[in-house]
What does this fold into?
Amino acid sequence: MSMMEVPVLIAHKPAVQVKNLNFAFGAGEARSQVLFDVELEIEPGEVVIMTGPSGSGKTTLLTLIGALRHVQDGSVQVLGRELARMPHADQVRLRRDIGFIFQHHNLFSSLSAIENVRMASVLQTNGKARRNGRDSELLRQLGLGDRLAHLPAQLSGGQRQRVAIARALVNDPRLILADEPTAALDAESGEAVMTMLHRLADGPNRSTVLIVTHDQRLIDRADRIVNMVAGRIVSNVRPARAIRVCKALAQTKELAGIGESTLARLADRMRVEYRPQGDVIVHEGDHGDRAYVIGQGVAVAFKGDSTPREVPVGERFGRITDISHLLVDETVQAHTDLELYSISKEDMEQVLATDKDLEARIRRHYMSRQ
Amino acid sequence: MSPVRRVPLAWRNLTENRWRLAASTAGAAFAVVLMLLQNGFRDALLDNMSSLIARMDGDLFLTNRARYMISHPAPFPRRRLAQALDVEGVVSASPVYIDAERTKWRNPLTGISRRIRVVAFPPRDEVLDVEAVKAQRDQWDRPESALADDRSKSELYGRLMTGMFSELNGRRIQITGVFTLGTDFRSNGTLLLSEQNMLVYYPDRRGLSWGETKIDVGVLRLRPQASLMRVRRDLEAKLPEDVIALTKAEFVAKEQDFWENAAPLGVIFDIGVAMGFIVGLAICYQVLFSEISDRLPEFATLKAIGYSNAALLRIVVEEAIYLALLGFAVGLVVSLGLFRWLEDATGLDLSLKLPGATMILALTILMCVLAGILAARHLLSLDPAELYE
It folds into this structure.
């Protein structure tokens, strides 16, 4: 299981939830399966970049999430709605809540820049976007304030792509699906687009952004990178958070001196949890199923009536009883709001299986505690 | 609220390229011209075939019950006029003689004799509501004289001018004046004779008595306050069954009905209109198909961002309607020019009537909308997911 984030402070459904998704083109002997048991969850406000070689299935997955194809097998939930067996008319309506950015701008050559954007904004029946002058405002933000009435033929390739991006974003979509959105843009324009996407992700709508790209400039700014190979997700990491987890693990004394690759594998398997102040994480004497490390905040630990001790960032607590054969030795409570990184027995065993040195180290640690 | 109304996409797409717009409009206009001409010919046929009746100045008309068209030789005795005068409300009854089958006019230039239509009535009766006929009645009342329709085909008869001498059925005759009536699809020219001259040139019209004289139409005029329907009822009651009394509208309708349905020349022109429609359908389909094909990725993008098939179809239909209106406007102007030229060339009275023009406009819109719907089929089956391929 990959590193997962379980936001507890703000309870909300994932913007995208893909379960056991299989998809094939053709039928009979010509049938060619392109997606195999794909599982993916994307939270509101996340900027996710999907990479992978050509033919890996990332575009097919993108079109399935965008309700542009029918789900054949499995489940795809987008913005709280299940796409499997969804009637076509509902799919069309759902697409209006999604901002699509295509590799090719596909602007109507007969319409001006602002009219091309308006073709999307008029889809919102309340006309809110237009009343607020959102069309022109967006174009101005993208550096096209003096090109509103220009036809696509009068714009450069990069300017056209920015018009297409404005068209995708004009209705403040809750989900944005983009295919190489910055391929035709220079560094400055690409940066402006990513800034805008992040602003939408961080904004009140907490828009979710899923980008298929090979642009390294974008990868560096992603919250999460999903890598697909041969129809399967082979890696699903949050670079920024992975670094935070690794830093926290590096401060864990039981793991001191272990290699970077093991640390990264461990971090990749850990789940991110948010706990509010006062929340009890583990109880003394319980059969433990996860081990925890504090990423941010402070917790307090106590045994029986003993004086509570402070548990700082990087300190491990909790136990996986099935590995250590020990029950949880102390109660741990959030003293402040906490960001926790935890690992399950199964994930721990997989990491241990790839690093015998770590396994020996952990076993020695537990032996000393018995 | 329709998204299509907010951004004039259909109009912008149609008018983006001027040359393409000109070609598209010309294509639609070509079909419009075909349909308007066919419809115009049909109207002209019916109008011209009944124009003689339309020009007759009377309230009721007596004709042989067996007569199915004005130029069909089906005379009845002149006595019926006298009988009609006995009916309360009838103040005058004038005979009209028509011969379109047997009369030959000798072209004085070529010497070749050609069939010509002859119409005759007593000059003082002013049966034809044509000013030149009334004004020149003294000229054509003379023996061996006639008025000639100046729109008679000169290539057949020579140019019929006042003072010209020639032969009618082998007898000398002089053109003593001209008037304007027009040809039709059955007659290429008309001579107007007095009743007296008619009986000289067609002695077989005479009967054993004056009452037995064979006439073709009786033009009745009624007292100003007389009830048309009552007089007609009385006439039918009093007169033998060999004649019927018709109002002018009925007489015109009967003539037109023959040509339109019994002949049936109307069907031929209707088929012509249908052919124009089909040709136009093919042209407009090609125009709109190319228009859609060239913008397929853009339309697919609209589909991807949430436009329904119905919304896309509305855009195409709207564009088709614009094409229809532009094509109709251009086709109308061209057709009016062609009508004028054809009028001069053929002598037919070709005029564009509002009902006919309205019908062709409706057919043009239908044609373009159908073409649009057919052309939009591949747009509707478009898979927007292909945009990501």
Notes: Chain A touches chain B at residues 59, 62-63, 66, 68-69, 89, 92-93, 95-96, 98, 100, 102-104, 106-111, 115, 118-120, 122-123, 125, 127, 130, 167-168, 179 (CB under 8 Å). The longest strand of chain A covers residues 32-42. The radius of gyration of chain A is 24 Å.
